[in-house]
Design goal:
It is a single chain. The protein is of the alpha/beta class. The protein has one domain (2-95): DsrEFH-like (Hypothetical Protein Ychn, Chain: A). It is 39% helix and 21% strand. The chain has helices at 13-21, 44-49, 57-62, 66-71, 79-88, and strands at 2-6, 27-30, 53-56, 76-77, 91-95. The protein has a 5-stranded parallel β-sheet with strand order 4-3-2-1-5.
Length: 96
Amino acid sequence: MILHILTKAPDSSAATQMQQALGEHDAVLLTEEAVTAALDPSWVVWQQCQPRIFLLSEDLISRGLASIAAENKLPTLEMEGFVALTEQYEKTVTWY
């Protein structure tokens, strides 16, 4: 079980590589520019990883996307939830 942390936009090469590496029990945390995935509820990873995909709320707020994530009922985590999530997984991979 791996926690994948994506920092780049959903249409980036990092996102594509992450999608190819995702395992059945892996989770995804979207941070930095990756939170723009909130703008595209049809992004394939939403279907692949529900309910194991999360958005970092601090990054949503800083980009003005918190209300969009809430409207689409997308799961968000604050920093302490991020830390708790990393403790649940044996390995963490960050995609830059």
